[in-house]
Amino acid sequence: MFCGVSKQEAMLVPSWLESLLSSDFFSVCSSHKDSPRSECNMFCLDCQDDAFCFYCRSTRHKDHPVIQIRRSSYHDVVRVTEIEKVLDISGVQTYVINSARVLFLNERPQPKTTGKASSHLCEICRRSLLDPFRFCSLGCKEAMLVPSWLESLLSSDFFSVCSSHKDSPRSECNMFCLDCQDDAFCFYCRSTRHKDHPVIQIRRSSYHDVVRVTEIEKVLDISGVQTYVINSARVLFLNERPQPKTTGKASSHLCEICRRSLLDPFRFCSLGCKLVGIKRNGDASFILSTKNDEITERMPRRLAAKAEEELREGIQQEMYQSMPPPPHSNSRRRKGIPQRAPLGP
Ligand SMILES: [Zn+2]
Ligand SMILES: [Zn+2]
Ligand SMILES: [Zn+2]
Ligand SMILES: [Zn+2]
Ligand SMILES: [Zn+2]
Ligand SMILES: [Zn+2]
């Protein structure tokens, strides 16, 4: 979905996207503050660092791919003609502002509901859309693919000893909080600092981090990832592992990313490889379906489209009863797992 140029050149979630979406634009450049065009409204896809001004562009970012951010009612927008060259913006609502077609970088505060409900809502933040698009902004489109806490989970170091509880028996840091999304912590920290937060427990198998399927499948779509039964519990690996020497008999199932042999016809050896696969190709998702995705997997597309409207409400209700809220983050700047209306707080 997010691949603009080609699959080789642009990933579905290119490395610069997160940085673009979290940059602060329109401050005054400290190097050029006495010049007329000194507001920092440029972003460099190569350097991927802070916003910069017109003059910085012609010096420090000469010949780099740069996009210009504009403003509409104090919100950052970008011209479709610029962004569509480097990103697949399909599904994102565009607007014509000052006779140029633009789209918003991030979710905006919601206007008060006005009575007449739109039939098109952003799938992430539920903002009313003008046209039948799926997302209000690039930020919401990105949030659809990968939950905000996942990268943090996959890069955390587990099983060190908790510095606050090192004299207690259960002090190894084997817990991760989906709300706080910070370092691993221990059993005792959980009951104090992360009381009532959604926490998952990491386990070990031959020195590799695993998580029980029963825990992770509540918050993540793990389809396509090889699972294993270890100590009579079904688990999956967080990350790619070093490959064993090839033994002659090749498996017919290989991880699409790291080429590890798999036992069963799965696509990925681990959550980490699935994440790479999503970023590269976008033909998988981590987000638990709350509506059409769930349906389309099980029936032909033509049928699904027709049935979607009718089934949406009913299916959504059923799934909410059997499943915890989806791990959408409403905003990259806000932490936590907001729950959708049907469940209440
Ligand atoms: Zn400057
Ligand atoms: Zn640059
Ligand atoms: Zn949105
Ligand atoms: Zn602790
Ligand atoms: Zn927490
Ligand atoms: Zn792999």
UniProtKB/TrEMBL annotation:
It comes from Quercus suber (Cork oak). This is B box-type domain-containing protein. It comes from the Eukaryota. Residues 24-69, 157-202 form the B box-type domain. Residues 306-315 have a biased composition (Basic and acidic residues). Residues 306-345 are annotated as: Disordered. One of its GO terms (molecular function) is zinc ion binding.
